[in-house]
Amino acid sequence: MHATDMTTAGTGGTALPTATLREAERLMTVCNSCRYCEGVCAVFPAMELRRSFAAGDLHYLANLCHGCSACFHDCQFSPPHEFDVNVPRTLARLRAESYAAYVWPRAFAGVFARNGVVVALAAAGGVAAFILGFAALVDPAALFAAHHGPGAFYRLMPHNAMALLFGGVFLYALLALALGLRAFWLDIGEPACTLADPLPLWQAVKDAGRLRYLDGGGAGCMNEDERPTDNRRLFHHLTFYGFLLCVAATSVATLYHYLLGREAPYPWYDLPVLLGTLGGLGLLLGPAGLLLAKRRREPAVRDEPSLGMDTAFIAMLFLTSLTGLLLLMFRATPAMGMLLAVHLGVVFALFLTMPYGKFVHGLYRFLALVRYARERRTHFGAP
Amino acid sequence: MLVVGGGNAALCAAISARRAGASVLVLEGAPKFYRGGNTRHTRNMRCAHDTATGTLTGPYTEEEFWTDLTLVTKGNTDEALARFMIHESKSMLDWIAEQGVRFQPSLGGTLSLGRTNSFFLGGGRAMLNALYRTAEGLGVEVRYDAEVIDLAVDNGVFTAATVRSPAGTEEVRATTLVAAAGGFEANIEWLKAHWGAVAENFLIRGTRYNRGTVLRMLLDHGVAPVGDPTQCHAVAIDARAPKFDGGIITRLDCVVFGIVVNKHARRFYDEGEDIWPKRYAIWGRLVAAQPDQIAYILFDAKSLRLFMPSLFPPIQAPTLRELAGRLRLDPDALEATVDGFNAAVRPGHFDDKTLDDCRTEGLDPPKSHWARRLDTAPFYAYPVRPGITFTYLGTRVDHRARMLMTDGSAAENMFAAGEIMAGNILGQGYAAGIGMTIGGVFGRVAGREAAAHARH
Q1: Minimal Cβ distance to A77: which of B104, B247, B309
Q2: Superfamily of chain region B2-228+393-455
Q3: Which of residues 183-242 of A touch B (CB under 8 A)?
Q4: Phi and psi torsions of B261, nearest 5°
Q5: What is the residue range of A339's domain?
Q6: With CB atoms 3.0 to 4.6 Å apart as the test, which of A16, A147, A272, B285 could cross-link to A21 if both were Cys?
Q7: The whole model's pTM is what?
Q8: B307 — phi, psi (to 5°)?
Q9: CB neighbour list of residue B75: distance below 8 Å, 6 or more residues apart
């Protein structure tokens, strides 16, 4: 009777299909018997509402986890303890598995396992296609000439062709993302009406916008060791808000084009360029900081198989910004043609791989936060 | 100044001494992961306070704290010292927060403690990590795997400690000693000296490093003992738990919902005597008194979801006879016990939040509350053994945390804090969170006093 038969832990009854799910179930059973971490983030209070854990429950909890690792350092049972409780790493692995589980079309599930390679190939392919396309379709003299004034870009690629190509890939990405999110929502078992309730939606916007649960319950994220810092939150804010500013720049430019009839490129002091430059700087500093934080992350809590996917996405954001800012700096020189091809190639690959890479983490986590906000109100009566 | 130990009391002593200007070395016998003894398994601290705070739901006066302490110890405490501790506990909450420890509202499932006890955000290990960060930031030196194997003490005057570590054995000299190295609960041989062979079947809820070597040496050097060596905080925990360090997650809160039988399938105590927070700490000793130190909590499907989940799932069977088979109990004996119990249950209104009127009549031992027939399949069981949290034997101290010698004099430069002197306050019994109060208060006092002594 002294044997620690951990295989019997878990009260779910039905065997879960993957080893990661079974390990997550074991951990949630351990954690549910302890509950010391319930003030650390959203995962543990959500866990306490359950006594058994189906795959959908575990996928929900995995996407609720922000990976701050405070629970790992707070846990009296983390390795080398024989109970081997490593929640951040197990939930990181399960998150990656959940992206593959809900992907549309299903045939692309394997893309997540080899994500670094796939994204790198997409980026290289995108850049190559635009360079070759420009070389084949544009007069070589125009490709390597300096262009000035409104419409300079469109002498290399007609605006309608650009809008059609990028609009098309963007709509495809939206469709694929929406179908993945739908599958997630159905699987975690949350009713559709939650999405029509403004209170949990607004709460989730605030929680995601502040990265409320990346702070280890207030002390900070524990990335490198048990000393808390807030670096990852800062770099993620730079990345995320930089990205939003870039989206805003593109949206304003689109409005300029269609409503005001004003063609890019715009002068440096104009709104699209200001927004894009500010966002671009965030998208340089943020991803660089995140990449550094990832390299320094304590090996015990790092999920090695996800490293390729994580790095690929961070690198794509960084390259998008870098090529965009270079284009801005050298748009009046003969280098503009090649820089435009490279930038468009990277952005095209970013859009194309959006539903099949780390980009999805934000959307699944947002939905998990919506559900958690609803559960908090139902069970704890608190925002 | 030398601090032996690495838990709450040791770190509070080290920090308060360092803040008072002393140069401090902390010797922790365990490896870094297991640092802090039982502190790593704690979750709250009981401190007196006059008003509600952000994390405490109401006031808890010194007088009420004192009343609670006399109740749980049945008056078996040093009143002057206990009142001093309670008074000091008032400023402890702010002080410990200033050392970087964070609090949260009381944990789910422990609402009865929300007014009196302050819960550490992230639990005891998070609290320890904060104290270590602060201590090291202040310049306190900490060594792990550093076991003190000998103390040079002459007529109550400490001069040096011999330390064994992976790097070798060396002598460490210091002007003062703070012993905060805990009890001897993980020292099975020592437990057997008082309990006999039955101690072989005890499970130890904390780490294997709480061996009491420092306590033993101090007592051998003429420090006055306090507390009964057989007294310990013992609860009934899942028998499938590991021998050491199973912590909180192997505890079971379901005794009041069922019946408890021994290996002969016989009941031996009133499972519904009082509410569980007032009774859980007697069940370790009750099980220790049973043959082979094993017992089985039995309940049926009606009760499965009434208590906190624990690490191992219950053993389950569709009939009582099959359950007996799985537990290797005599099916006829178990059936007879359950039939007798079921026949004695009087009708009542079950309410797990109050001392309800569901009880047995004409049964020995009775079940005074929450008695319901075991009649709804499937049937469940948890095997339980005594789980030892900590021991009460310790070193006698005064209100400056100075150790007292067997001749009644105070040791010149030896101080004690935490479990190693908890017996001064706790002659018997326990109230949640009080171990951390003893450690924090006497740790801070010991550090302050030791630093003052080192200056003179």
Answers
A1: B247
A2: FAD/NAD(P)-binding domain (3.50.50.60)
A3: 216-219, 226-227
A4: -120, 160
A5: 113-187+215-358
A6: A16
A7: 0.94
A8: -135, 165
A9: none
